[in-house]
Amino acid sequence: MKHILLIFIAFTVPTASFSHPSSYEGGFDFMGSSHLKHQSLEFIYSPKYWLGTGLLLERRPDFWESASLQLGYLAKRWNLPAAQGNFYLIGGPGYGSKFDFNDTKTTGLLYRYGAQVDYETRRIYTFAKYTEQRFFDGNGLINNRLELRIGYAPYLAKFTELNSWLILKTLFTEQFEEVNYIPTVRLFYKNFLIDLGVDLNGNTQLNFMVRH
Amino acid sequence: MKKFFITIAIIFISSMANSEAKANTSDVNKAIADKKVVRTNNIKKIKVYGMACPLCQSKAETKFKENKDVKSVNVDMEKMLITLNLKDGKDISEKTIKPIVESLGLTFVKMVN
Questions:
Q1: Which of A63, A74, A72, A69 is nearest to A39 (CA)?
Q2: Is A2's Cβ below 8 Å from some Cβ in B?
Q3: How far apart are CA B33 and CA B54, in angstroms?
Q4: Single pTM value for the model
Q5: Contact B19/A79, CB-based, under 8 Å?
Q6: Searching chain B, which residue's CA lies closest to the CA of residue A183?
Q7: For residue B50, which residues of chain A lie inside 8 Å, CB to CB?
Q8: Span B58-84, pLDDT tens digits
């Protein structure tokens, strides 16, 4: 089973999830992301608007890989005139592997946890998310990640039109020893979203989401 | 890299021009629709908070259209209004509307006359 999951990850286009951990009641999200250093696929079903459940597959090639069940809980929402702020708690158990510098591979059950805050209007988008993955048996930290985003919509559009955002993403990974700045263009049309970004080293990042 | 940015710029400029043109048309249609709204009594207007993305508009329309007494739904993101055009002889109470708004993760503010 582990090999099937890992092979599935290897052939998919990915990186970190970028959406809300829960969606609309009865909503289903399928997301994927790809960057040289981080790839992921995520499926979320939201039985309620404040609860998301799903599966997250992610990896950093040659460093670590994991498959985990995801629970996203909307701990607090602020609904304001034409604006919304959210605070989510995220977590779940999983299974994964970590590769050390001397090529030692550690495999086992893990737990993933984190938090996410975001605030958006029709013009401005801000986002911060921190997650960690650790082995249950005390074999330590697998990975941690802090992602910050700020975005601006140069024009307003309806749901049936092409919506566009300019977003700057900042990623801190590997115990904050690495920082990636990724200017990104976000295009979404109806239930489909795509992010196209390039970091300062010329590595591209592609994200997509389908929401139903 | 250069081709990538040129492609993105073209997509951006095209979508901005398209949105401006459609905005002008929708203003005219909205003015016509408003006049129609004034003449009929089968209208419920709901003020909500939290609508910050176009998907909110779509979800609100879909959710309210599921109600058998609703003929059509119009969402005005700028005014934060959801307008329900009801079927002839039908009514929908605030008691029914409020949980629908809340199930969308939005906040019901008030019914608007």
A1: A63
A2: no
A3: 20
A4: 0.80
A5: no
A6: B5
A7: 77, 79-80, 83-84
A8: 889 989 999 999 999 999 998 999 999
Q: For chain B, what is the HEC assignment?
A: CHHHHHHHHHHHHHHHHHHHHHHHHHHHHHHHHHHHHHHCCCEEEEEEECCCCHHHHHHHHHHHHCCCCEEEEEEECCCCEEEEEECCCCCCCHHHHHHHHHHCCCEEEEEEC
Sign of CA dihedral B72, B101, A48, B50: positive
What's the average model confidence in pLDDT over A89-106?
91
pLDDT score for A140: 87
Please give the structure tokens belonging to residue B21.
Answer: 């043109």
| Token digits of residue B15 | 């979508």
Retrieve residue A47's tokens: 């039985």
Output the pLDDT for position B107.
Answer: 96
The per-residue pLDDT for range A109-162, each reduced to its tens digit, is 999 999 999 999 999 999 999 999 999 988 788 999 999 999 999 999 988 899
pLDDT category at A173 given cuts 50, 70, 90 is confident
Q: Which residues of A touch B62 (CB under 8 A)?
A: none
Half-sphere exposure of B87 (CA within 13 A, CB side): 9
DSSP assignment letter at A161? S
Could you give the domains of chain A? 2-211 (2.40.160.40)
The CA angle B106-A116-B62, to the nearest 5 degrees, is 30
SS3 of residue A16 by DSSP: coil
What's the rounded Cα separation, in Å, for the pair A45 and B88? 37
pLDDT in tens, B2-54: 776 777 777 767 666 655 555 444 554 554 454 444 444 689 999 999 999 88
Q: For residue A8, what pLDDT is reported? A: 37
Q: Which residue of chain B comes nearest to A204, CA vs CA?
A: B1
Strand partners, A154: none
Which residues does B contribute to its contact with A (CB < 8 Å)? 1, 4, 8, 11-12, 15-16, 18-20, 22, 26, 48-55, 57-59, 77-78, 80, 103-107
